[in-house]
């Protein structure tokens, strides 16, 4: 990434949207669950004791923000983190708040 004093407007907006997405407990739990491996929306809904449609709504947003990706396995859609950057960010934040 070039050394610039200010971020380009599009990159700045995408980064801001990313952090807004992390400002929601449900989405953070989804990211945490997916950092442990791919899961279906049903598995995520069960783990969080939420309806599949509520989880599906959150997954759609996370997909639009390029935080999660989906693959089809037969009729099942499996969700996973888009890449390792997401789990590293989550781990760094958790470590920060677990320090004494």
TrEMBL record:
Protein origin, superkingdom = Bacteria
Query: In the record, what terms sit under GO molecular function?
Result: DNA binding; DNA-binding transcription factor activity
Which InterPro entries does the UniProt record give? ArsR-like_HTH, HTH_ArsR_DNA-bd_dom, Metal_resp_trans_reg, WH-like_DNA-bd_sf, WH_DNA-bd_sf
Q: Residue limits of the HTH arsR-type domain?
A: 7-100
Q: Which UniProt keywords apply?
A: DNA-binding, Transcription, Transcription regulation
Q: Which SUPFAM superfamilies does the record cross-reference, listed alphabetically? A: Winged helix' DNA-binding domain
For whether the record's keyword set contains Kinase, the answer is: no
This protein is called what? ArsR family transcriptional regulator
Instruction: Say which species the protein is native to.
Output: Streptococcus downei MFe28
